[in-house]
Amino acid sequence: MRKLAAPLAALMLAACGTKPPEPEPTVEVVPETEPAKEEKPVLSNSTLKYLANRKLKPQPTRPLNVKSRCSHTDEIGTRMRLDLLVKNAEVKTFAAQVTMKEHGACRFDLEDFEQVEKLPQPLLRHKRAGDCTVRMWEQGSHVTIAFNSCPSVCEGKAFDYLWPIIVDARNGRC
Predict the structure, then answer these.
(1) Would residue 9 count as lying in a domain?
(2) Residue 147 belongs to what domain range?
(3) Does residue 130 contact residue 143 with C-beta atoms inside 8 Å?
(4) Main-chain phi, psi angles of 85, to 5 degrees
């Protein structure tokens, strides 16, 4: 047994003294791919599908300039009077009165409002009724004056029937 013990011990010591070979680093070859083609986004909303192929351009952001002094009565008897002057997005004059037959009237006067924004759109906020706002924006050759949350400025249920006022910026007509 002693004869076997000596070679076995030498073999064990030899095994401990040598390092195991390190594995060779492997280089992964990635196949070349073609550049990705631009794909049009998939539009899920049906409205966006109709707009996708049109050549629509964004409205430029520029200071609003409009002057109008007009009055208009429509077919159902709604009367509207407007006195408006906006220079470089600053509202200088604003007085609007819209009377809806059998529903009452809404009156807007610049004295009751403060201008809180100029760009991208002039925005007026009522001094006492904080939710009431008047926003003006240009769309092509027309300027829209829209009213939001202003029932306190109107009599009766007139605000429920109030539509935006549209002015032709070229000639000031309502």
Answers:
(1) no
(2) 66-168
(3) no
(4) -140, 120
Q: How many domains would you assign to the chain?
A: 1
Which two three-digit tokens encode residue 5? 């013990």
pLDDT of 81 above 90 = yes
Domain membership of residue 96 (yes or no) is yes
Q: What gap in Å lies between CA 150 and CA 98, rounded to an integer?
A: 13
More confident residue, 14 or 67: 67
Q: Say if 2 falls within a structural domain.
A: no
Cβ count within 10 A of residue 51: 10
pLDDT tens-digit series, residues 112-140: 999 999 888 899 999 988 789 999 998 88
d(CA 87, CA 64): 7
Residue 78 in domain: yes
**Do you know the residue count of the chain?**
174
Amino acid at 68: S
Mean pLDDT calculated for residue range 19-43: 59
Spatial contact of 153 and 164, defined as CB atoms under 8 Å apart: no
Q: Do the beta carbons of residue 108 and residue 137 sit within 8 Å?
A: no
Specify the pLDDT at position 133. 93
8 has pLDDT over 80: no
